[in-house]
Design brief:
The structure holds two protein chains of two kinds. By secondary structure, chain A is of the alpha/beta class. Chain A folds into two domains: 216 residues, P-loop containing nucleotide triphosphate hydrolases (Rossmann fold), CATH 3.40.50; 45 residues. Chain A is 31% helix and 27% strand. Chain A has ten helices and 13 strands. Chain A is globular. The longest helix of chain B is centred in the C-terminal third of the chain and has 31 residues. By secondary structure, chain B is mostly helical. Chain B has one domain. The chains are: A alpha/beta, B mainly alpha. At the A-B interface, helix 1, helix 2 and helix 3 of A face helix 1, helix 4 and helix 10 of B.
């Protein structure tokens, strides 16, 4: 879908590049996570890919063609969900959606999404009367309005209750099943774990790690297993190497003879990996 | 439906919902009040003066406020990730913000025709209003790029009024009669605007009207270029104000 090579970008007032030469591909039909702390260039990368910023160096190909060669019809093909609300606050949700729908050649039935995301009953209320969560859900519908092939989502579940976050994640998965491609930017590593086929971690304007979540977890894991068990009324803890675990007599003895309380492999979480590769907590 | 018509209709709806249309109508009613209470039966000379004041001030203000709202609500992003060109966006905004000036002109014109004596061709006046409003809407649009908020915009508009419009009013009403001053104000766009609008009464020399029209057209073209460029720069800075 996208081929990005040695992409560099500097804002006019800056003395240094915000994007310092990044290369990656986004394959058709995948959910690609672009992760990293604030200010490392994720949003700038997204703005370059959605043509809000133009004067970059390097190469961006979309469907094999230089991104510069696309005119405004490019926006018929992509949907963009911003983190902040992007609605006329004194218009109703319905009026906002109707206005933007008219600009596209192809539309979805927004009523279906409004119903699914619990906004249908409030569709004739002004957006200024919406809660933060309602605006986030409406933002998501705005991104889907033109039935895009490529979806850019920036923190799509941020500020949502678990029920609505679940619904949005289900819709994103359905979008992928139907052949859609997604670039997801988020701080919520659970969402990344659940949704992303591949992820790239950014730090200092560069990509410092790129792979599937599973491979990254294996790469950054310690091949050990922690076990908690009861021994004569006392809780004891032991750690064993995963290699040769089945032939480790001490481990097998505990498994056979002791009541087990907990058993954990030391597989890294994406949160751990985020901190390791970017040097910053994922909540930042 | 053509995209520019969709954008135009959207702008009109927002002018209504954000009560900018209402503000414009309110000002028009104030002008009607002036016409009503002024001790004058023939208002042929006064109507163009009031129209000049209305168009030059309201066109700058309305488009400025509308764009500030759009920037603050980040709807500008939503617009620019839609399949529209920057030119379509700018034109829809400018054309829609000329509409309140036309409505205002029509209200004053209808009142004067019914209750006073008025000898002005409506369509000539309309043409003048469209040209002057287009120019001044672009001034309002451009000013928003030099301010971060509504307060800053108001300050800039007041400055623009003091520098560009007030001297022309002082000259028009004979308050300042200094010859150097009277010659210098020909450099101001508001002087051209006034000459175009006053020209519709048939009391202005043709060469002055033609020169003023050329001034407004060339000025509008240059302002359009500046707005396009500023909008581009605005996004090159990542949308920061």
């Amino acid at each position: 879908m996208y081929r990005i090579r040695d992409l560099r970008f500097r804002y006019p007032r800056n003395s240094e590049d915000t994007i310092g030469g990044i290369s990656f591909d986004i394959k058709k039909g995948e959910i690609f996570g672009l992760l990293g702390p604030s200010g490392v260039g994720k949003s700038t990368t997204q703005k370059l890919l959605i043509k809000l910023l133009g004067s970059y160096r390097g190469e961006i190909l979309y469907k094999g063609k230089d991104l510069h060669s696309y005119n405004d019809s490019y926006y018929q093909d992509i949907g963009v969900g911003f983190e902040m609300p992007v609605f006329f606050s004194k218009l109703t949700a319905e009026e906002n959606l109707r206005f933007f729908k008219q600009l596209y050649a192809s539309n979805i039935d927004t009523d279906i999404l409004l119903k699914r995301l619990g906004l249908y009953e409030d569709r004739n209320r002004r957006v200024s009367e919406y809660s933060k969560g309602m605006k986030v859900r409406l933002n998501f519908i705005r991104a889907m309005i033109n039935n895009p092939n490529m979806l850019f989502l920036d923190e799509p579940t941020n500020g949502l209750d678990p029920k609505n976050a679940r619904i949005i994640k289900e819709i994103i998965k359905e979008f992928r099943q139907q052949g859609g491609t997604v670039l997801l930017t988020t701080h919520l590593m659970n969402d990344v774990d659940e949704l992303c086929d591949r992820v790239a971690f950014m730090a200092g304007g560069k990509i410092v790690e790129i792979s599937t979540p599973k491979e990254l977890k294996l790469k950054y894991s310690t091949r050990e297993l922690d076990i908690e068990y009861m021994d004569d009324g006392t809780i004891r803890k032991s750690t064993f190497s995963l290699d040769g675990l089945g032939t480790n007599n001490e481990f097998m003895d505990i498994i056979r003879k002791r009541p087990i309380i907990t058993l954990h492999s030391r597989e890294s979480t994406l949160d751990d990996i985020f901190i390791k590769v970017t040097g910053v907590d994922a909540g930042v | 439906m053509s995209r520019i018509i969709i954008l135009f209709k959207g702008e009109l709806l927002r002018l209504q919902r954000y009560r900018l249309f209402a503000a414009s109508i309110f000002v028009s009613i104030m002008w009607v009040g002036v016409l009503h209470f002024v001790d004058m039966v023939n208002v042929t000379g006064l109507i163009p003066q009031l129209v000049f004041l209305d168009v030059t001030t309201m066109a700058v203000l309305l488009v400025g406020v509308s764009f500030i709202y759009e920037r603050d609500e980040a709807t500008l992003y939503s617009m620019l990730i839609s399949p529209i060109t920057k030119s379509e966006y700018i034109w829809a905004k400018l054309l829609s913000h000329i509409t309140p000036s036309i409505v205002s002109l029509s209200i004053m014109f209808i009142y004067a025709k019914i209750f006073k004596t008025l000898d002005v061709n409506y369509f000539l006046l309309l043409g003048g209003v469209v040209l002057v409003a287009l120019f001044h809407s672009q001034i309002g649009f451009l000013l928003t790029f030099y301010t971060k908020d509504f307060t800053g915009l108001v300050m800039l508009i007041i400055t623009f009024f003091l520098v560009s419009i007030l001297p022309v009013i002082l000259d028009e009403f004979g308050i300042v009669t200094n010859e150097v001053f009277r010659k210098l104000i020909f450099l101001l766009p508001a002087k051209s605007a006034l000459m175009i609008i006053m020209g519709t009464t048939g009391t202005m020399e043709s060469w002055k009207i033609i020169t003023s029209i050329v001034y407004m057209v060339l000025g509008s073209t240059f302002l359009y270029y500046l707005i396009w460029k500023k909008l581009q720069d605005h996004f090159q800075r990542g949308g920061e104000k």
